[in-house]
Amino acid sequence: MIRIRKLLPLAAVAFVVPVLAQQNSASSHADLLRAIESQRAEEQRVFEQRRQEYESKASQAEKDALLRQAEQRRDELDRQSDQLNETYSANELQISNLNTQLREKANALGLSELFGLARQSANDVSSILQQSLITTQFPTPAGEVARDEWLRQFAASVTTPTAAELERLWIEIQREMTASGQVAKYQARVVQPGGESVESEVIRIGPFTATSDGRFLSYLPNLRTLNVLPRQLPPEFMEVLEEFERVTMGYARAVVDPNRGVLLNLYVERPTTMERIELGEEVGYVIIVVGILGALAFLYQLVSLVLVRLAVAKQLRNLDHPTPNNPLGRVLLAFKGDKTRIEEDADVAELRITEAVLREVPRLERFQAFLRLCVAAGPLLGLIGTVVGMIITFQSITESGSSDPRLMATGIGQAMIATVLGLGIAIPLLFANALLNSLSRGVVQILDEQSAGMLAESIEKQRRA
């Protein structure tokens, strides 16, 4: 029995190996459990069979022979295990020595610094490629990582880069440098304002500007695609774009954003004139109405004064035949038309001439008082809009509890627009009123001169008589 107990560990090792082999082929925990139970039953059966065979041996010599065979087998396995352990230890030592030699050679060649610079360059270039619209010209093949994502992975890796990885790093950097100095035309997916993606012909000017079908495009780094700007640039830029797309060779003018789309987006987000006027709300509309009325009055009176000056200039060339279609002619008719008035006293004649001139002055200075009123009312109305805008700003700060510029933008915008509109109508109308005043004073001056001349002529005739 003592010898049987010594053989039990060896038998256990011999029977556990098949169980582990079956464990790898089990597809579930239940299958594994059933395989183990079946193996245990088989091992128990084999053990009982061998024990019975051992006990059925007739002589002690046969039992001793079996025991010696088992011990020899055990000693042989122990020797093999010791040899394998020695081999494993020797291999570990050799690997450690080889790694040390590799590090020493790498340091001697400067590869550590080289790989560090390669990773640093990859990290710097990855951010540039992520924002570069050149990516749309070189789409990522199916199953591969995008070039900017691959560069980030390369920069974050801790393993020694391979020759293929270093080559791809060089190719991506060289491709970006080369394409940055080119004007290219290629097919790419473009997101339309409605949200649909359409295959279109894209014209790329370096990494700065991209256009398609007469419209400017912007680059979406997260989607790695181009989209049409929701609002295009002013007409002068669109004319340059149309001329540029028609050119097939040579040099041509083009719209280039040196900030790679930042200035275009800011220019597009700039509000239009109507949006600025709408921001002024009711006060802004009142100021505009006042300005329009003042402008209409100015234009009407300007045309009238120009015609009057032309008629007066024509009358000056023919003073002996006055006509009633101009102020000077009416003044002349008022004095010379009645022969009895020529012989009147000088004081009476002067009063009659002055009356005729004063009758013409209101027509010549028509709407000037209204224009002066508009000039004074414009800044005051703008001040009202400014106060209203500041009230809205303070109200938004009170309601939100923070001084976020985006919350204050509406109120401040309304205040500034109202001020600009008020000054915008006051300053032009001020010059307009000065122009009308100058024209009317010129006509009045002519009337005064001719009146004084007629009065002097009348006095001289009376003295002769």
Helix content: over 70%
Assign the structural class, choosing from mainly alpha, mainly beta, alpha/beta, alpha+beta, or little secondary structure. Answer: alpha+beta
Using only C-alpha atoms, the radius of gyration works out to 52 Å
**Largest sheet entry:** 5 strands, mixed, barrel
Number of beta-strand segments? 5
What is the distance, rounded to the nearest whole angstrom, between the alpha carbons of the first and last residues?
181 Å
Structural summary, described in words:
- By secondary structure, the protein is an alpha+beta fold.
- The chain folds into four domains: 2-104, no CATH class; 110-180, no CATH class; 185-269, no CATH class; 274-464, no CATH class.
- The protein has a five-stranded mixed β-barrel with strand order 1-2-3-4-5.
- Residues 1-23 have low confidence and may be disordered.
- The longest helix is centred in the last third of the chain and has 60 residues, at 405-464.
- It is built from 14 helices and five strands.
Question: Which features characterize this protein?
Answer:
rod-shaped; disordered N terminus; 5-stranded mixed beta barrel; 465 residues; alpha+beta; 7% strand
Show the helix and strand layout.
Blueprint: H1 2-25, H2 29-55, H3 60-109, H4 111-130, H5 147-156, H6 163-180, E1 183-191, E2 197-205, E3 209-212, E4 215-220, E5 225-228, H7 235-246, H8 262-269, H9 273-316, H10 327-336, H11 339-342, H12 346-364, H13 368-400, H14 405-464
Parallel strand pairs: 1-5
Antiparallel strand pairs: 1-2, 2-3, 3-4, 4-5
Helix pairs in contact: 1-2, 4-5, 4-6, 9-13, 9-14, 10-12, 10-14, 12-14, 13-14
